[in-house]
Amino acid sequence: MNKTNDNQYQLFVLRHGKAADGQWGRDFDRELTDTGILQAEKIANYLEEHGVNLDVVLISPAKRTLMTAEIVISKLEIESQKIRVVDQIYQANLDALLKVIASCPMQHRTLLLVGHNPALEDLVEYLLPTALMAELQSDDRIYPATLVHLEMKLDWSRLTVNSAQAVSMIHGKFLP
């Protein structure tokens, strides 16, 4: 799935799995539900089955994103030097996410970003051509445990509006 040539970059955008309601505590500390854990396991299995080899994993420090990422990291046996917990991803806006992504060295061609809405939807909408985004129905939005695979020719520091192509959008709840 991520066998790129020398001028392609791949961005995998993953929203955390289903989290517990936040009514009894801080949003930051919300954990995955049993359903969320199962969703994350399905996404991890999907990535493994498709031979994804990640160069960098960028993770929000919130509990639910750390739990989601840990499931993927464990399944794919990702080395610790490829993992970065980035405070700026939690409660980020589009500009903050673009800055985090731009900080990745250009030799890293395959990146997984594990974060939250609405910033993840904003990022995907920014990177994809407007016509393609207009075709997406409400069921195609980035719900919990959704993985969006984007390809682009620009390095991380030069991402601009409409600079990516959609490869796939996978909802964890629909995976076997």
From TrEMBL:
Lineage, top ranks: unclassified sequences, metagenomes, ecological metagenomes
Pfam families attached to this UniProt entry: His_Phos_1
Official protein name in the record: Phosphohistidine phosphatase SixA
Gene3D superfamilies associated with the record: Phosphoglycerate mutase-like
Annotated InterPro entries: His_Pase_superF_clade-1 (IPR013078), His_PPase_superfam (IPR029033), Phosphatase_SH3-domain (IPR051710)
Taxonomic source organism: marine sediment metagenome
